[in-house]
Amino acid sequence: GRGLDILAPFMLLYLRGPLGIDAGTAGILYALLLIGAVVGPLVAGWLSDHIGRRRTLVGYYVASAVGIVAFTAAGANLWFLVPLLLPFGTAVFSESPVLQAYLADRAVGPIRDVAFSVYFTFAFGIGAFWAFVIGSVVDFFGYPIAFLLMATSYLAAALLLVLVRERPAPEAG
């Protein structure tokens, strides 16, 4: 899904294009989604401090996948979209800050700078490639299939996180 840089622009294009929602209403719906970008990381930070970064990430990945499916199923129905977009935005935009905190917990000393360099290089590189893939899927198969692919990517991320054996975080110092 990739939150702000992939999911959000395609959602806005979908609202305005195939769903035919007027600019003012689409702007309000988009604003509800983006409020989640402010609220989400605050809630996610607190949550990840209390139940753990990994659990929080898995929960947000699953919530993001469910949110994408619900968004797609809602179509142009404002009675479903309005209450959906704020909590959905909260989930979608919380993944990146928690993932960065998870990395910071594990990479200490001189390796931390290298780890973050690699993380951001891959995150932006994959983001650019993912935008191309999603755009191509939209062109050939339509928005619902593209959103389904995004939802699947969130579930795959959750599954990978669950399957990877976790070592205790090293002690900083």
Describe the protein's architecture and organization:
This protein has about 170 residues and is an all-alpha fold. It has helices at about 5-15, 25-50, 55-75, 80-90, 95-105, 110-140, 145-165. Helix 2 packs antiparallel against helix 3, helix 3 (about 55-75) runs antiparallel to helix 4 and helix 3 packs antiparallel against helix 5. The radius of gyration is 17 Å and the shape is globular. The mean pLDDT is about 90.
Key features?
81% helix, mainly alpha, 173 residues, single chain
Average pLDDT level:
89
Element order: H for helix, E for strand: HHHHHHH
Uncertain residue segments? none
- The residue fraction in helices comes out at over 70%
Number of strands: 0
Report Rg.
17 Å
What sort of overall outline do the alpha carbons produce when their principal axes are compared? globular
